[in-house]
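Example for tutorial group B:
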């Protein structure tokens, strides 16, 4: 039984039940036993592998995007901010790829928004010789004022969500209780009248998801960008439109895992509501690029060209690894279409897109 289980059951005993959001928050961010606080979850010995760990081209193309956006903005002093930076691999690749961009590194201060001491330490060792001005922060609110470019790869999917279920008697909230056998299980509880009176005709049994944490962070970033200038790139798996299905999932040892088993020892995520994020950005007056697939974005930024350059000077083993890694990022059978890219900016057009739109 995981060490976090008693903390969770104590809270259930006090409150009667936990929301899905409260459960996710405890499992991922508990100061002592939270999944991201106590160990490095990445790589072959972790629970999953992210795009920067699969191919250096991923981080390089994000770096190129940031440098081109900076140039388009008139080359101001810049805050380059990464949210949930993993081991620091993405930022290391991005900075290496832009080292010869005239004036870019001189204009930069790098800010890593990270709550995990374990991962912050890994980031420090990955980046300590790469750039002279790097700062670690606990929250996006702490990023100093000024023009900023935010990079968020697989960040929003780990933010806590709430789940609602349509029942015969109206909408109920999905919550978590302790059953008679001493195991965690889902139950249904009442919700506020504003949601219960929704006029939508939704089939009984439909699960609906709300993303209060993601919306709060997106409002913070987009309000800042509208006032001080800059851009944001979000790369994640998600959807464009209403989420009328259950996307909550857990991963352990590179395989799907029951969400309520081993709390704190498995990663828990939910698909990102890209329409909600895009709408918040548009409401702030920012340019919003049409949602692209990861394959489209990497191709538009020159990923295919970069692969050819790397293959040209690689040995046979390296060629195999490079080609397989990039194919994993871009093929529709792997991550190419599953992962989406949302770009917003105070300046238009947005690099990597031929045109842009203001979305409601």
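The residue assignment follows.
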């Amino acid at each position: 039984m995981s060490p976090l289980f008693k903390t969770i059951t104590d809270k259930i005993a006090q409150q009667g039940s936990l929301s899905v959001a409260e459960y996710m928050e405890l499992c991922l961010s508990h100061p002592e036993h939270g999944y991201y606080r106590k160990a490095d979850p990445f790589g072959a010995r972790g629970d999953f592998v992210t795009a920067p760990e699969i191919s250096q081209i991923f981080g390089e193309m994000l770096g190129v995007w940031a440098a081109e956006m900076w140039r388009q903005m008139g080359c101001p002093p810049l805050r380059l901010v990464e949210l949930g930076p993993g081991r620091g691999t993405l930022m290391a690749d991005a900075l290496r790829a832009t080292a010869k961009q005239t004036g870019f590194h001189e204009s930069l201060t790098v800010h890593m928004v990270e709550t995990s001491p374990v991962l912050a330490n890994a980031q420090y060792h990955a980046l300590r010789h790469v750039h002279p001005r790097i700062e670690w922060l606990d929250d996006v609110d702490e990023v100093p004022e000024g023009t900023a470019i935010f990079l968020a790869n697989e960040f929003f999917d780990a933010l806590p969500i709430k789940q609602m279920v349509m029942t015969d008697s109206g909408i109920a909230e999905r919550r978590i209780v302790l059953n008679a056998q001493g195991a965690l299980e889902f139950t249904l509880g009442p919700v506020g009248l504003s949601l219960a009176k929704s006029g939508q005709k939704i089939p009984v049994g439909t699960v609906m998801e709300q993303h209060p944490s993601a919306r709060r962070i997106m409002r913070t970033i987009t309000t800042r960008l509208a006032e001080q200038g800059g851009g944001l790139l979000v790369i994640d798996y998600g959807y464009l439109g209403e989420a009328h299905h259950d996307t909550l999932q857990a991963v352990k040892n590179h395989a799907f895992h029951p969400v309520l088993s081993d709390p704190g020892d498995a990663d828990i995520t939910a698909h990102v509501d890209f329409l909600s994020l895009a709408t918040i950005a548009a409401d702030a007056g920012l340019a919003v690029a049409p949602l692209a697939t990861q394959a489209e974005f990497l191709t538009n930024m020159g990923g295919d060209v970069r692969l050819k350059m790397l293959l040209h000077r690689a040995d046979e083993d390296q060629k195999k690894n490079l080609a397989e890694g990039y194919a994993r990022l871009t093929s529709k059978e792997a991550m190419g279409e599953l992962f989406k890219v949302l770009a917003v900016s105070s300046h238009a057009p947005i690099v990597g897109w031929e045109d842009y739109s203001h979305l409601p």
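The longest helix spans residues 56-72. Compare this with the pattern of hydrophobic and polar residues in the output above.
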